[in-house]
Amino acid sequence: MLRALLLMLGLLLGIWVVYGILKLIMSRVRRSAKLRYGDKELAIQQRLRALDTFRGIAIIFMIFVNDGAGGYWWLEHATWNGLAAGDLVFPAFLWIMGVCVPLSVKSAFAKGIPRWKILIHIFRRSIMMFLLGISLNTIYGSNMLSQLRIFGVLQRLAVAYLISAGFYALTAPKYYTPPRGACGQALKDVLSCVWCWILAGILIALHSAITFIVHDPDCPAGYLGPGGKHDDWVAPECSGGASGYIDRLLLGDSHLYQHSDARRVYGGIVTDPEGILGCLTSAIQALLGVQAGATVLLQRSHKARVSRWLAWALVFALAAALLAGFSRDYGVVPINKNLWSISFVLATSAVSLALLSICYTFTDAWRLWAGGPFRAPGLNAIALYVGHSICAHLFPFHWRIPVMRTHTIRLVEAVWGTALWVIIAHMMAKKKVFITL
Hints:
mainly alpha
């Protein structure tokens, strides 16, 4: 079962090594003593490679998972509670978006851009992202206005970005002076985000109160299951608990995602995995990323940055395990992507912190790795996400043969479609084409 996956990984690694060697040879041949860069290209060269590499890993793996991931269940999404590899992708995007917020806001301050203009830019970008997400929803759903799905991946990103980036831009000092003393210096990155931590605490309290108090009159308070036949039909009409109830009440059943895995397996009523209540915890995830970005700004040594990221990863992982009761189903707050539970936020943020630490160590601290083949896709993540969504059923990105039931052929098809987008990303980077909202 795993032989095809291991062979494919070996083949891709071999292609990457050969490509790297050829690229090195060609760069030596074409080397010129006179190089010119525009402001945009120079800024890209000077930014942390780890951030674009991390984002590239996330978008490539997202495309691979959306393309079927070879049919391996552990590479896709957990049906309800639990954490599979595919569940790490979306929160990684949210989190890295938060990491970039302090860097972009401080850069804008350094250029003399007024705070109100920064806030307008954040608001405009959020609106564009939200509307683009609604448009993409019609690829897989209905374009009838009475059945249009309101929320989705980009919409969740837009709301989280508006809350986290907008709040940071509103509260961040233009010139931060850390407290004197060893303790103040050690905690300066945390103290610089104190208002973001306060907001995160408020959002956690609000989300928890709604989750365990608000409920359908015919459902038990604090229910966190998928409804339907789950747990011997204990609550068949209570799918998603407070989260599902709020979505159905405010948006209506016809404006929610109709084909979730949980509904397919358990047969409950409709719930949306990117609904309204989860926006609160998604904003918390982005705020945790803001803290990691503040560490980049205020901790200058490689050791200080990586050690703090790994320390936060350990704290978040332990907190998530405690909330989940060190189990899949029996904790106070199980790890659940569909509900975007706070334990899910902490667990996935811990994984993101560990991955960023690895990327940063090899790309920016030791400079042993340039980030390939992931950095170029990371520079055009939004373009790749939109492109692969639009081309979801188009050749040559996707193809079928009469028998598609084996892991081998499904893996080849998924890797083929993903590889085409990696090639497109490298062509865009080579031509200095960078698309942002």
